[in-house]
Amino acid sequence: MFSRSMSLARYRQLTADAKVLEAQSFGVKVWLLPDGRIMKLFRLKGFFSSGRLYPYNLRFARNARRLQARGVAAPKIREVFYCGEIRRHGVIYDLLEGESFHDMFAAGADDDLYVTLAGFLAELHRKGIYFRSVHPGNVLLRPDGSMGLIDVQDARFWPWPLNAVSRARNFRHLFNSDDQSLEMRAFGFERFVGLYLNAVDGSPSYKQRLKSKIMAYDNAWEQTGP
Predict the structure, then answer these.
(1) Helices (H), 56-179
(2) Do 39 and 22 contact (CB within 8 A), yes or no?
(3) Quick count: other Cβ atoms within 10 Å of Cβ 226?
(4) In this predicted model, what pLDDT tens digit does every residue of 102-156 receive, in sequence order?
(5) What domains are defined for the chain?
(6) CA dist., res. 133 & res. 118, Å (int)
(7) Mean pLDDT of 19-43
(8) Using an 8 Å Cβ cutoff, are 132 and 173 in contact?
(9) Which of 88, 98, 138, 167 could form a cystine bridge with 41, CB 3.0-4.6 A?
């Protein structure tokens, strides 16, 4: 999918009656458009940013297609664009229905939801998917009971299951967000690791080695910050 040029006039037309879903000091990041679609904007974070070579909106679109090809629900991309007047790359995609695990945990969800999330993480790893933005705010439970991912620009894919080092490192991302991971920390790192290991294929000795690597990241958010 190629990135098309979007004029300032069309950008203003699309967002005239849109709702801001996410914004930071540098401006709006995510719009909910009047027709129900989502517009996500990406800015370059520095002169030497890799986003200049491979823009984040193209990564987002590519990763969404790759996830879908591996049986994981992800946003359906409708348009990839660059608006020079506002210096933003962007994507427009259909809203992926579902409720985030962050919202469900914050509402006082029971332990079964933690079992579901742990099983889904094991499934991603089994399918060779390393989703760096794996915190509970980016994982959805859909109305049909399936799982989905949003904010998918930062993901890597292998044709084989992830190795133990990558699996362990992904736990740091899951627990590292001060905004999205508080309920996960309250549930307990080792407790969640146990649920994950129950869903992982492998011998008891493999699971024990894997556990030791994962547990090295316990409380990593306190040591290194967000």
Answers:
(1) 56-69, 101-106, 111-126, 164-175
(2) no
(3) 8
(4) 999 999 878 999 999 999 999 999 999 999 999 999 999 999 999 999 999 999 9
(5) 4-93 (3.30.200), 99-224 (1.10.510.10)
(6) 15
(7) 95
(8) yes
(9) 88
